[in-house]
């Protein structure tokens, strides 16, 4: 199966990911595609980089004759880099792996924590997506909702959510999930 471009990543990224194994992968399981949240989900990291630097710059801008106050922006930038790195790490290492059997949400929580949720594709009853207005349309992100009997898996700020929705819909259909398949099975 050809792996299409998802979430603005280069075509070779998904091809490379589809050939890799992940921890807990079944022997007959094949990775279809991998995606992550939009870079807008990391906005706190950008704010965390900008705000300490700006606050550290204020004293030097007020008292420009005191050259020792130049340490403020440097210290602010250092603190901002730490905050940015923390947010980037949580964003970068939080991925969604879609196989021919399930979707795996692997979320980085903090520096050392990890949360993993598996959801069988055959158990998904409905899938929908929502683009939240002008900013979502302009920046290219949205929300994908996977509904099951037990509950919903809501994936916020998905890059190119329409493409991800279409690929997930195809994977769910091939795995035998979805409302239409269950209704046909009940009638037979």
Keywords:
four-stranded antiparallel β-sheet, 188 residues, single chain, disordered N terminus, three-stranded antiparallel β-sheet, alpha+beta, disordered C terminus
Task: Write a structural description.
The chain is of the alpha+beta class and 188 residues long. Helix content is 44%, strand content 24%. It has six helices and seven strands. The strands form two sheets. Strands 1-2-3-4 form a four-stranded antiparallel β-sheet, with helices on both faces. A hairpin with a 4-residue loop joins strand 6 and strand 7. Helix 2 runs antiparallel to helix 3. The longest helix has 22 residues. It is elongated and about 70 Å long. The two termini are 31 Å apart. The N terminus and C terminus are likely disordered.
How are the SSEs ordered, and which strands pair?
Elements: H1 11-19, E1 31-35, H2 43-62, H3 71-92, E2 95-99, E3 102-109, E4 113-120, E5 126-130, H4 133-139, E6 141-147, E7 152-159, H5 161-175, H6 179-187
Antiparallel strand pairs: 1-2, 2-3, 3-4, 5-6, 6-7
Helix pairs in contact: 2-3
Short description:
The protein is an alpha+beta fold and 188 residues long. It is 44% helix and 24% strand.
- Proportion of strand residues: 15-25%
Given as residue ranges, the uncertain stretches (5+ residues, pLDDT < 50) are 1-7, 181-188
The count of DSSP E runs of length 2 or more, i.e. the number of strands, is: 7
Helix content: 40-55%
Helix/strand/pairing class, anyone?
Answer: alpha+beta
Please list the strands of the largest sheet in the order they lie side by side. Answer: 1-2-3-4
Mean pLDDT: 82
Q: H/E order of the elements?
A: HEHHEEEEHEEHH
State the helix count.
6
CA distance, first residue to last residue = 31 Å
Principal-axes shape call? elongated
- CA-based gyration radius: 21 Å
Major beta-sheet overview: 4 strands, antiparallel
């Amino acid at each position: 199966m050809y792996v299409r471009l998802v979430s603005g990543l280069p075509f070779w990224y998904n091809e490379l990911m589809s050939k890799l194994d992940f921890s807990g992968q079944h022997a007959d399981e094949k990775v279809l595609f991998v995606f992550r949240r939009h870079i807008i989900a990391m906005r706190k990291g950008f704010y965390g980089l900008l705000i300490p630097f700006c606050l550290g710059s204020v004293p030097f801008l007020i008292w420009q004759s005191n050259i020792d106050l130049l340490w403020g922006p440097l210290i602010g930038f250092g603190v901002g880099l730490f905050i940015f790195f923390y947010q980037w790490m949580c964003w970068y290492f939080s991925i969604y792996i879609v196989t021919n059997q399930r979707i795996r949400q692997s979320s980085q929580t903090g520096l050392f924590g990890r949360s993993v949720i598996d959801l069988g594709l055959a158990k998904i009853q409905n899938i929908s997506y929502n683009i939240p207005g002008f900013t979502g349309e302009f920046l290219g992100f949205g929300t994908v909702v996977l509904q099951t009997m037990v509950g919903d898996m809501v994936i916020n700020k998905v890059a190119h959510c329409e493409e991800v929705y279409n690929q997930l819909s195809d994977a769910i259909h091939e795995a035998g999930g979805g409302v239409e398949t269950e209704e046909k099975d009940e009638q037979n």
